[in-house]
Design brief:
Layout (H helix, E strand, L loop, with lengths): L1 H9 L7 H22 L4 H12 L22 H17 L3 H12 L4 H18 L1 H21 L3 H14 L1
Helix pairs in contact: 2-4, 2-5, 4-5, 4-6, 6-7
Length: 171
C-alpha cells in the first residue's frame, strides 16, 4: 500500500501548457524557416539525396519523404503544417510569447492552407473585437474584399466552382 502511495506521489504533472507550447513553437519556427528556404528553391529531400549520392555508393536504396504539397517544411503536406502553426501561434499569443508566436506565422501563412488562414483570421478578429469592435468590423470587411478579389483571380477558381456545382446538384 505504501508503494502505491509513493508511486502516486512521484508522478509528474504538467501544471501549464506553456513549456509544451514553447517547444512546439520552436519546432514550428524551424519549419517556417524551411518553408522560406523551399520557396527560395531549396529542395530538402532532393538536395539531401544528391548529397548522400555524392558521399556514398549511389546503388544503395535511400528512404525519403516526398513533399505532397510544397512548401511543407518537415511536414509532408503543407496544410498540416499550416494548421499546426496556427494552433501553436494563437496559443503562444495567449501566453504572451509574442516573438515566438510571430516566428510561427511564416509556417502558418506561406503554405496557403485555406482552413489555416481562415482560423488565423478568425483568431485575429476575436482578439481585435475585444479591443475595438469598429476595427474588427473594418478588418472583417477588408478580409472579405481581399478574399473575393483573390477568388476572382486565382486559377483554382474552377475547382471551387466544380465543388459548388456538386453541392448544388446534391441538394
Amino acid at each position: 500500500c505504501s508503494r502505491s502511495r509513493s508511486v502516486r506521489a512521484h508522478r509528474s504533472r504538467l501544471h501549464s501548457l506553456e513549456p509544451a507550447l514553447i517547444g512546439a513553437g520552436i519546432g514550428i519556427a524551424i519549419n517556417g524557416a524551411l518553408v522560406l528556404a523551399q520557396l527560395g528553391g531549396f529542395d530538402l529531400i532532393g538536395d539531401t539525396i544528391d548529397l548522400i549520392d555524392e558521399l556514398i555508393e549511389p546503388s544503395l536504396p535511400l528512404l525519403a519523404i516526398p513533399q505532397k504539397s510544397a512548401p511543407a517544411g518537415l511536414f509532408v503536406v503543407g496544410n498540416y503544417l499550416a494548421e499546426a502553426a496556427v494552433l501553436v501561434a494563437v496559443a503562444l499569443a495567449l501566453y504572451r510569447r509574442l516573438v515566438l508566436a510571430a516566428l510561427c506565422l511564416p509556417a502558418a501563412i506561406l503554405p496557403m492552407g485555406r482552413g489555416a488562414l481562415l482560423a488565423l483570421a478568425v483568431a485575429a478578429l476575436a482578439w481585435l473585437w475585444s479591443r475595438s469592435r469598429k476595427g474588427a468590423v473594418m478588418l472583417a470587411l477588408t478580409l472579405g474584399l481581399l478574399t473575393a478579389a483573390w477568388a476572382a483571380t486565382t486559377p483554382h477558381r474552377s475547382s471551387t466552382l466544380q465543388r459548388l456545382d456538386i453541392w448544388r446538384d446534391t441538394l
